[in-house]
Amino acid sequence: MFRLICRPKESVVSSLQDLPPTCFILVMDNSGCILVKQIGASQCTPMNRSLSSHNSYAKDELHLPKALPMLATSRSLPTHAGTGLQKVKNTVQFLNTKIQKQFQQVAPLESKGTSRRFTEREIERATDKFSPLMVIGHSSHSIVYRANLKDGQVAAVKVLKITNLSREELLQEVDILSGLNHEHIVHLLGYCYSKDMQAVVYNLLQGSLKQNLKCLRWKERMNVAVGVAKALRYLHRSCSPPIIHRDVKSSNILLSHHFRPQLSDFGTAMVYHQPQKSLATREQHHVVGTFGYMAPEYVMYGKVNEKTDVYSYGVVLLELITGKAAIQKNMEFKHGSLVLWQARSLLSHGLSEQLIDPNLNEDYNNEEMQRMMTAAQLCLRDSSSRRPSITKIIKLLEEPQYWVKVRKEREECNDEFKSSREPRIQRCED
């Protein structure tokens, strides 16, 4: 895989033309969210294309423009793009067709009473003309406002930055959330969908786990861990077909007055249709999510199932344990992940005590801490087949006897592994 430098004046399409199909462009914003992942469109193979010193894709770093206007409409594409142009045109047509179908599904929701469609004027009035004083949160792709609705209800309005993908994400989120009902999942009140505004209206909460993490006591952190796990169990087991969130992270976990968690932001969630058991028929998906939280098989191959969320949940557990963000912005890119840089290494070498957040001031239940650490280690296994289901993780967090059983099985497994290596070690010493 080549990492690509794309100068501000270059288009993504022309960059795709320079890359062979064995390579791809990965575009992330400043917060680590993946915006675009596209394969190369060049007809030349790496074997017969010469790599001159001025070819931008030979650089070993990633630096891409924040905005991608070339993907917005087919009219903005260069006429000489050839195969790449046709691929992008097909993609745009596919997205437009998909959005139209989604909107046809979402439109009847208001008549059913499951969701209300707000006008631009209603949203503007409720947020005091989008006053900065009403802002309660923001990300690279949205701003969240406190809103005083006409009926006196207080709500949160997430206003999306309009991009070529925002319409699809809005309708996807409204469509999925309107069919969910769980105490640990945000409650959808309505949405606004127009040319100039795309917004989702939720029940108002007190902020995200990311914003409040260092202030939480151990009991509250444990409640957050269990609550989010139950939300995922509902999505994976109670919904038919299952729903995969695909972006479980601390900023998408909102907290109530009593620090009860509610999972939010279903713009990239997907309904998961079970594939055939044959490896040849496993479906690959467009990668979306946030660097530092994404499972390795998802990043590398686009493979998605319930274990994708389990891995992301494991990263959240590490944040609850350490009090640190999953992405350390003051570190080098390759060491920016809390998982890759420190946590898994300490857990695997029995140095877990060094992970515990000093802000807890040693005020925590030691057995509960050990259970959460065990759960995090199991969730973060590289092989998705070796990760437990979220149901087993809940048992691990809530049932001490089950944790004892899991710990005993792991110790026996480690003893068997060590004994199988002893003769080989002895021979090396001789």
From TrEMBL:
Domain of life: Eukaryota
Pfam families reported in the protein's UniProt record: Pkinase
Gene Ontology MF: a single term: protein kinase activity
UniProt-listed SUPFAM superfamilies: Protein kinase-like (PK-like)
Domain Protein kinase: 130-404
Signal peptide residues on this chain, from the entry's feature table: none
Protein name: Protein kinase domain-containing protein
Taxonomic source organism: Aquilegia coerulea
Taxonomic lineage from the root: Eukaryota, Viridiplantae, Streptophyta, Embryophyta, Tracheophyta
